[in-house]
Amino acid sequence: MCGIVGYIGKNQALPILLDGLKRLEYRGYDSAGVAVKTADGVFSAKAIGKIVELEKKIGEIKSPFPCPLVPRSGRRAPLLKRANTGIAHTRWATHGAPTEANAHPQTDCQGKIWLAHNGIIENYQELKTRLAAKGHKFISETDTEVIAHLLEDLYDGNLTATLIKVLKILKGTYGLAVLHRDEPNKLLAAKRGSPLVIGLADGEFIIASDAAAIIRHTKQVIYLNDGEIAEISDRDFKIFDADNNQVDKNVDQIEWDQAAAEKGGWPHFMLKEIFEQPESIANSLRGRFMAEAGRVKLGGLEGVAERIRQTNKIIIVGCGTARLAGLVGEYMMEEYAGVPTEVDYAHEFRYRKAVLDEQTALIAISQSGETADTLAAVQEAKEKGCLTLGVVNVVGSSIARETDAGVYSHSGPEIAVASTKAFTSQIAILVLFTVMFGRQRQMSLATGQRIINELIALPDKIRQVLALNDEIKRVAEKYYKFKNFAFLGRKYNHPIAFEGAIKLKEISYVHAEGFASGEMKHGPIALIDENFPSLVIAPLDSVYEKNYSSLQEIKARGGKVIAITTAGNGKIKAAADEVIYIPKTLEMLTPILVTVPLQLFAYQMAILNGRDVDKPRNLAKSVTVE
Ligand code: G6P
C-alpha cells in the first residue's frame, strides 16, 4: 500500500523524509510528495513516478522563499536548516489516477494544514459534497483531500483537538501524518486500520507506516493502536485515545534488519501477501455493501447500470490466475444472476470469432491492468459494441482506462510474481458483480443479504485458515520430494484445482496439473500410483459426495490424498492421508477459503525445494507483450 514518513527533530527534515520514502519503495507506488515546514510557510513538491522524479522536481522548483530549499553543491541554505518538521508520502492510487494533484501531501484551501494518508475514507463523497457547498475548493479526486478540508472547517486553534473531532466523523481506515503551518513544533499521527509506527531517536522522531523507513535511525518504536493519536514535538510526545484521554504506551524494540523490515518481518513477499488476505479482502469489500437492502454499491458501475440491466451474455477474459478467478465468476453468475457466462483466455478471445453484440458485457480481469492480451481483448470487444467492464487492481492502468467502467479490487500492491491476494480479491469483486447483476434480475432480497453477511464474515475465516500454516508446512515436509501432483475440484472449486496447480508449478517447479474431479476417470487416473499424490478439494457442498467418490477412486489405485474439506467432516479422515479443514461458508465463497491453504502449500513446497519464491525463473509479474 502507500507509504507515510513524517519527521520532527533536530535535523533537516527533507533528506530524512526522502530517504524514508526510498526505504518504502519496495511497497510499490506511482507518485510521491513531501511537505516541510519552514520559517516562511510550508514547502511542498510532488511528482508522478519514482522518488528520483520527486528529487528532480524539488531541485527544479523555484523556491518561493528567499533562498533555495535544496542545497546545491554542498551549500547549506540557512532556511532549510530550520525546516525540521515534515511529512512525505508514496501513493499507490486508489481514488483517482496517479497525478500530481492526487499525490499527497494534500492540503486545505489556504495551504495551512498538510497531511499524508493511507487507507480509504468511505464517506468521503458525502463529506466532499457538504464541504464544497460551504465553499471549500477541491483540486484532487482523492478521498484524502476531504480530511484536510474538514480539519480546516472545524479548526479551533488547536490541531490536536480538531483532529480528534474530525476522526470521529470519518468512516473507513487511515494512517495519518498531519501538520499545521501556524502551529510550531507539532506533528500529529493517527491510526485506524492502517499501520503507523513512531520511531524514537535521540532528539528526533520519525513516524512511518512501516518500520522499514525508521530502522536506520532507531530501533526503539511505539506502535499506535487503532483510534490512537500521537502529538509529537522535537523533544516529547503524547498519545491520546479517541476520547482525548492520554494513554501510556510501551516502547518496543525492532529486531529486524533493513531487508527483513521491507517485508514487514516476513521472509518473503509472497508469504506476507498471503497473510495480508484478511485485510486485502476487507479492503476490496469496504464501503460496497448495502447490507439491509441485500445490494451492493459499486460506484464505478453506476454510469452503466442501465446497460448492465440490458446485458444478456457475459464473457470474462484474463490471463493466468486472473482467468481462473473468472471461471469462479462463471459459476456464480449463472447460478445467482441467471446470465449466460463464458470465460476465455484473453489471448484466445482476441483471435477467435466470438459471437458478440451490444447486449454482451465483457469483463476483463487483471491485477496489473497492463497485460497486453487482456487489453487487446477489451479493445476487440469495444470494437464489436460490447459493454466492457474491468476488475483491475492498479488504478489508472491501461485496462482501467480502456474499459467503459469497472471496479478496482483494492488488494494493495502485489510484489511477489505469484498472484495470491490479488486473486482472492478478484473473486470477491466477482461476488459483488454477481449480487449487482443478480439483484437486477432473479436474486431475492434474502439471498442478497445472505451473501453479504457471509462476505462480511470472510476476513475472520481467512484468519482461521492462515493459522494452519504450521500444519500445512508439516504436510509439505512429507511430500516435497514428489515430482508430480494432481489437483482435483468440482463446480466452484474446479477452477481452484487449476489455481492450486499453477501456484505449485510456478514457484516450486514441481509438475502439477489441475483436473475437474469428474474427468479423472476419463484419462488422468491412468497417471495415479503411489508416486503421484493428489490434492482433493472436497468441501461439504452440493457436490461433496461426487468429490468423495473421486477421492476413493484415487485411493483404490494406491494414490496418496491430501484432502481439503469443511470443519466438522471427521469422516473423510478414514479415507485421506492428510486432511486440511476450512471453516464453513456459502458454497460460492469456498473458493476463497480453499485457495489459502493451496497458496501456503505451494509456498512451503517451494521453500523446501530451495526456490526463489518471490521471483521464480522465466516469469514476469506483468506481461506487457503479446
Ligand atoms: C503473469 C503473472 C500471473 C498473472 C498473469 C496475469 O503471467 O505471472 O501471476 O496471473 O500475468 O496478470 P494480470 O496483471 O493481468 O492479472
TrEMBL record:
What are its E.C. numbers?
Answer: 2.6.1.16
What InterPro entries does the annotation carry?
A: GATase_2_dom, GFAT, GFAT_N, GlmS/AgaS_SIS, GlmS/FrlB_SIS, Ntn_hydrolases_N, SIS_dom, SIS_dom_sf
Where does this polypeptide localize?
A: Cytoplasm
CDD domains xref list: GFAT (cd00714), SIS_GlmS_GlmD_1 (cd05008), SIS_GlmS_GlmD_2 (cd05009)
Q: In which domain of life is the source organism classified?
A: Bacteria
Keywords from UniProt, A to Z, are: Aminotransferase, Cytoplasm, Glutamine amidotransferase, Repeat, Transferase
GO cellular component terms given for this protein: cytosol
Q: What class of enzyme is it?
A: transferase
Q: What is its main location?
A: cytoplasm
What Pfam families is this protein classified in?
GATase_6 (PF13522), SIS (PF01380)
One function term, GO molecular function aspect? glutamine-fructose-6-phosphate transaminase (isomerizing) activity
GO terms under biological process: amino sugar biosynthetic process; carbohydrate metabolic process; fructose 6-phosphate metabolic process; protein N-linked glycosylation; UDP-N-acetylglucosamine metabolic process
User: Locate the SIS domain: which residues?
Assistant: 304-443, 475-616
Annotated transmembrane regions: none
Concerning Gene3D superfamilies, the annotation shows: Glucose-6-phosphate isomerase like protein, domain 1 (3.40.50.10490), Glutamine Phosphoribosylpyrophosphate, subunit 1, domain 1 (3.60.20.10)
- List the active-site residues: 2, 621
Quote the function comment for this protein. Catalyzes the first step in hexosamine metabolism, converting fructose-6P into glucosamine-6P using glutamine as a nitrogen source.
Q: How does it assemble?
A: Homodimer.
Tell me the protein's name. Glutamine--fructose-6-phosphate aminotransferase [isomerizing]
Q: Which organism is it from?
A: Candidatus Falkowbacteria bacterium RIFCSPHIGHO2_02_FULL_42_9
